[in-house]
Amino acid sequence: MATLLHIDSALARENSVSRAVTASFREAWEAVHPDGTVIHRDLAAEPVPHIDADVYGAGFVPAEERTAEQQSAAALRDQLIRELEEADAILIGAPLYNYAIPSTLKAWLDHVILPGRTSGTENPSAAGTPVTVVSSRGGSYAAGTPQEGNDFAVPYLTHALGTVLGLKPEFIVPELTLARVVPAMSGLIEAADASAASAHEAASHLGRELGGKLAGAAA
């Protein structure tokens, strides 16, 4: 049976657009592949620690030669990497915070990017795995807008997930999520609703497509 690695990083719970859209993907995936496994990591509720010297150093030492401190520190990193390697599909909620990704998601990436294993080799251990990224944002950073060029989430994740880890990223970008919250954006509510509807539709489509393909392969 196939495994979906589902990662959320939005601070908000009930009103998070990225969480709502990843939920649409997951529901569609589970509908066509009910026997599949879902591993859900909520990095806001249970953040992974930032890389420290022991974790970093352990990545360059054979397991049998690690100190006790390095072995303990590396255990979580090994678990996170195994989850990445064993996933048949990956789903990431990555809201845009201060022009970039949440620090909790960056910490997760720092753990799973390991030279000689998941990166820096001709055959990264998780290469080829499809990853759907929901990158929501309160405004718009599209071409022609005042904020054009200030989105440092999608370009970074394209490189980190695609070039470095060898995954196959696809992005869903719901915009203007603050239109109902910020009075000055009230004129953009219709556009925000249209963007959200398009994001949910795209997420459901990709969830069904990937889930169906993986269910068929497992049959």
From TrEMBL:
InterPro entries for the chain: Flavodoxin_fold (IPR003680), Flavoprotein-like_sf (IPR029039), FMN-dep_NADH:Q_OxRdtase_AzoR1 (IPR050104), NADH:quinone_OxRdtase_FMN_depd (IPR023048)
Domain Flavodoxin-like fold: 3-163
Catalytic activity: N,N-dimethyl-1,4-phenylenediamine + anthranilate + 2 NAD(+) = 2-(4-dimethylaminophenyl)diazenylbenzoate + 2 NADH + 2 H(+); 2 a quinone + NADH + H(+) = 2 a 1,4-benzosemiquinone + NAD(+)
Binding site for FMN: 16-18, 136-139
Entry EC number(s): 1.6.5.-, 1.7.1.17
Signal peptide: none
One Pfam family hit: Flavodoxin_2
Keywords assigned: Flavoprotein, FMN, NAD, Oxidoreductase
UniProt keyword Oxidoreductase, yes or no: yes
Listed cofactors: FMN
Cofactor remark: Binds 1 FMN per subunit.
Enzyme class: oxidoreductase
Protein family (similarity comment): Belongs to the azoreductase type 1 family.
Function: Quinone reductase that provides resistance to thiol-specific stress caused by electrophilic quinones. Also exhibits azoreductase activity. Catalyzes the reductive cleavage of the azo bond in aromatic azo compounds to the corresponding amines.
Assembly information from the UniProt record: Homodimer.
Protein name, as recorded: FMN dependent NADH:quinone oxidoreductase
Gene: azoR
